[in-house]
Each structure stands twice: as structure tokens, then as C-alpha cells.
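Lab notebook: predicted structure, single chain.

Context: the supervisor wants predicted structures on file for every construct in the current expression panel, including those that have not yet been purified. This is the next one on the list. No modifications to the sequence; it matches the entry in the shared construct table.
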Amino acid sequence: MKISVITAVYNRAATLGDAIDSVLSQQSVKLEYIIIDGDSSDATPEIVKQYGEQITRSICEPDAGIYDALNKGIAAASGDVIGFLHADDWLADDQTLRRVANALADETIDGVYGDLIYVDGENPNEQRRYWRAGEYDVTRFRRGWMPPHPTVYLRRRCYEQFGNFNLNIKTAADYELLVRMMVKHKIRMQYIPHVMVKMRVGGASNASLKNRLAANRDDQRAWSINGLKPPWGLRLTKPLSKLPQFFAAKAGARS
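Prediction complete. Output recorded below exactly as produced.
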């Protein structure tokens, strides 16, 4: 089994090396690593070049945003399984992809996901939120739950059968893709009870109140464009579902 990891990057020279190193350090796995650079103007292209042939493929050209870049990565990928690692993030340990491969050794499983920790952007040792995903249940999805997208690995056949990221959804394109895959088409997912990714705080959908409101509208559309009735109160339940992450982070900091 070959796992394709895709990193979309634009002007992230300060953090990209951490992401790359975490992928290249993975043990006991057949790996394809693809970097899609949206024509960065900082030192990002030079950093990618420093890794030479350790990067399976790199594409540097303008794009229409992160989801357009990720779609380019999917098109370029040849792995049996596809996952994404953003340029501000890193895989939690060198066994992460081995756990993915072990879970997907069961051919009846279409995809996996795990836990994620948010860390302070300036001090990565400071834990801000702990996203303990837990087992999948469609009723939880209807109450605002979703798996942490950076921890999701799907078989390539899922994209071939059900499509890539919908660029019309903008900041909620990852949520829409998961609603489409997991709720509409009922692909079979398995939870890996380990921290898979550490993520620096931030993100396009949370960058401002305006963006957050736009993301809330797109959350509703993620259901309706798939012929599904949006859950009642989604604009409230989805943000509220994140509150336990902050309490879990505080508990972890005290332990």
C-alpha cells in the first residue's frame, strides 16, 4: 500500500520545513510526498529544492486557493491512500502513517481519522486545544461533529468515485467533502485513537468574524447541495461542539 501525502503551501518558509521533516521521518510505510506551491514569493521554493528527490513531486504555479491546490495534488497522486498535511502543521510522531496503513489493511475500510492538537503559533510546546475525535456516528455529524480534516486519509477510489473538493464552497470545502463522503455516500471510516497531527493555531475560516460567518453559511450549503437537509441549529451546534477541545487542552496542560 502506498500513501500519498499532499502539502499545499503559499509563503510558509518559516514552518514548511517542520511539515516536510515530519513526513520524511515516517517509519515502515511506502510513501509518496507531493508539494503544491501556489507560486510563493518568499523562500518556500528554495526550501522545497533543498530536499531534492526526497520530495516525490513538486508543482509551483498560481492557484485559486488551498482547495484548488489540494485538488491538483489529488490529480498528481498515485498512492492507494491520500491524506493532507498543511504547511503550518506536522505529523505527531514517526508512526502516524504506519497506523494509517495498518488500519487500511482491512479492505472494507474506506478511510481513517484520528485526534489533533492545536498548539500556539509562537510556542509550539504550548497546547491550546485537544481535538479528541472519537468514534464515528452519523447522529454526531448532525449535531455539529466532524473528524479533524488534517487527520483524514481516504482511499483514492473515494475521490475517483465521489469527487474532489468543491471550489464553490470556499472555507467549508473540507466540511462539505466529508459530509458528501461520510453522510451522503456512507463510506466506512475507522477511528485511530492517537494524536495524528499537531496544528499551529489559525486558519482561513477562523481568521475573522466575517470569515466565520461565511463559513457558517457554507456549512449549511454543504448539506443542501448534497440533497441533504441541514441539521437544525447547525450554526450553533457546530461551534459549541468545539468547546470540549479547550477543556481537554487545559486538562492535558495540568497533567
